[in-house]
């Protein structure tokens, strides 16, 4: 008997996927599977639910939501033998896209039934884990504005991006990585484990979940015209044409922003306010076992 515990975020994406246990049982016959379903009701609730589920020793815990829900569930599974399953019903679905996990409930549940897995790398920023990406700079402000909209859609994301490009002031930062120290006046500092950001967009098309590296993107202070060019390159997935963006492979980086006290950062598409102006980001190689296509 395979025991699967589902953690469902009922308001992810369109908010029309409040999977009932009876609905999931159509895909997981009682003769083979034992399933339980919990629903998250607020930010970080999925962490509480996953920690409780772990005590029951399921074979798989399946996150049904977007990258934020996946982050909360997956963060609890590191250093356990429990495998992560994903049913992507969020708005961006960056990690699921990278793993070729379909938004179709039928196809996503088929992946879970097959039980094929692989280990992926995991990122860590201070005490937080990330699986897709983190950002300190304009992308944190974009998420801050994006979270204020009632609907999480691509149009909302574009609106938040335009507003942020007008409001954002570059941040003075000192970066220590790969044996060197550099200073920058940063428009964006983006560190990615995945080749997908969400909505089919990417800043790191060559990133690999299994290569043992994180992909660092440094974008310095930009003119108005450069901001427009950068935005078009992001929306059209032609970031390699934007020569002012530096791409560097790293295993670890320390970032200090001396003119800040606290730092807004986005972690897998969710806003976090870190009560420090210093952050350490590192990779955990093969840190999580995931059910895949």
Automatic annotation (TrEMBL):
It holds the Pfam family DAGK_cat. Its cofactor is Mg(2+). Keywords: ATP-binding, Kinase, Lipid biosynthesis, Lipid metabolism, Magnesium, Metal-binding, Nucleotide-binding, Phospholipid biosynthesis, Phospholipid metabolism, Transferase. Residues 1-128 form the DAGKc domain. InterPro entries: ATP-NAD_kinase_N (IPR017438), Diacylglycerol/lipid_kinase (IPR005218), Diacylglycerol_kinase_cat_dom (IPR001206), Lipid_Phosphate_FormReg (IPR050187), NAD/diacylglycerol_kinase_sf (IPR016064), YegS/DAGK_C (IPR045540). The keyword NAD does not apply. SUPFAM superfamilies: NAD kinase/diacylglycerol kinase-like. It comes from the Bacteria. SMART domains: DAGKc. PANTHER family: LIPID KINASE YEGS (PTHR12358:SF106), SPHINGOSINE KINASE (PTHR12358). NCBIfam families: YegS/Rv2252/BmrU family lipid kinase. This is DAGKc domain-containing protein. It comes from Flavobacterium plurextorum. The lineage of its organism: Bacteria, Pseudomonadati, Bacteroidota, Flavobacteriia, Flavobacteriales.
């Amino acid at each position: 008997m395979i025991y699967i515990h589902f953690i469902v975020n009922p308001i992810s994406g369109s908010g029309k996927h409040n999977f009932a246990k009876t609905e999931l049982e159509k895909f997981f016959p009682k003769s083979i599977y034992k399933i339980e379903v919990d629903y998250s009701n607020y930010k970080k609730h999925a962490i509480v639910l996953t920690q409780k589920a772990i005590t029951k020793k399921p074979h798989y815990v399946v996150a049904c939501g977007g990258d934020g829900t996946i982050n909360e569930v997956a963060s609890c599974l590191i250093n356990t033998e429990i495998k992560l399953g994903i049913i992507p019903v969020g708005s961006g679905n960056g990690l699921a896209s990278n793993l070729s996990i379909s938004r179709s409930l039928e196809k996503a549940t088929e992946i879970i039934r097959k039980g094929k897995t692989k280990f992926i790398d995991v990122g860590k920023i201070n005490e937080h884990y990330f699986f897709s990406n983190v950002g300190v700079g304009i992308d944190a402000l974009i998420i801050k504005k994006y979270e204020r909209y009632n609907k999480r859609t691509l149009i909302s994301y574009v609106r938040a991006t335009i507003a942020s490009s007008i409001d954002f002031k570059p941040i003075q930062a000192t970066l220590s990585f790969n044996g060197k120290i550099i200073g920058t006046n940063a428009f964006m500092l983006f560190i990615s484990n995945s080749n997908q950001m969400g909505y089919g967009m990417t800043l790191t098309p060559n990133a690999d979940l299994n290569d043992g590296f994180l992909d660092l993107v440094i974008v310095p202070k930009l003119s108005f015209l450069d901001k427009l060019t950068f935005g078009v390159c992001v929306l059209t997935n032609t970031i390699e044409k934007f020569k002012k963006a530096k791409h560097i492979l790293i295993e670890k980086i320390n970032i200090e922003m001396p003119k800040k006290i606290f730092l807004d950062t986005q972690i897998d598409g969710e806003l976090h306010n870190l009560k420090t102006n210093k952050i350490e980001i590192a990779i955990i190689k093969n840190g999580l076992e995931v059910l895949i296509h």
